Amino acid sequence: MLEPLRQGLPPLDPAAVSNAASCALPARYEAVREARQFTRRTLDGWDLGDRFDDVCLVVSELVTNALRHALPANTPRIPEQSPPVRLHLMRWTERLVCAVRDPSPDSPIARDTDDFSAESGRGLFLVDSFSDSWGWHPLAGTLGGKVVWALFRLPEPQSGE
Fold it and tell me: Rounded to whole angstroms, what are the CA distances from 49 to 29, 96, 145?
């Protein structure tokens, strides 16, 4: 079990964010493709398309984990119900954060595996490998659940650009 991590998170002051976008994702595995498409459009709009491969891999893993582990098999799949998983992309001048919110209060569990050819069980290992830092924290109040986030450092803008 992983302890909640908040270190490395950018300031939560919304005024400090230069760009932010989010999308609701339905409780079905096609949502992973929708999350990748949303990420592509968003990063292209922010002129960060060159970071797409790493960010997309991490987004795919975080969304897959939320769908697979945070939603019990008996979670109702009611179309009128608000989607239980939400992807947030937030950009600061030198940082990009991908955050996935889900309704489970349970800690993400990083599995120890030496089998690098396994089809599953390496999601958080990949998140750790491709992002600069990651963590999670429980949500408070009426929201419930948790947010699992990954941070990517961005190159400093060149002066005069």
Answer: 24, 12, 31
Helices (H), 66-121: none
DSSP code of residue 3: P
Task: State the helix-helix crossing angle for 30-45 and 52-65, rounded to 10 degrees.
Answer: 150
Are 157 and 137 spatial neighbours (Cβ–Cβ below 8 Å)? no
pTM equals 0.80
One-letter amino acid at 64 equals T
Residue 67 has pLDDT above 70, yes or no: yes
Instruction: Give 91's contacts (C-beta < 8 A, 6+ positions apart).
Output: 17, 18, 19, 20, 46, 48, 97, 154
CB 39 within 8 A of CB 52: yes
37 phi and psi, to 5 degrees?
-65, -45
Helix axes 123-130 and 52-65, enclosed angle (nearest 10): 150
**Structure tokens of 50?**
């060159």
Answer whether 27's CB lies under 8 Å from 79's CB. no
Task: Find where tokens 């060149």 sit.
Answer: 158
| Intra-chain end-to-end CA distance of the chain, in Å | 45
Give the pLDDT confidence of 90-105 residue by residue, as tens digits. Answer: 998 889 999 999 988 8
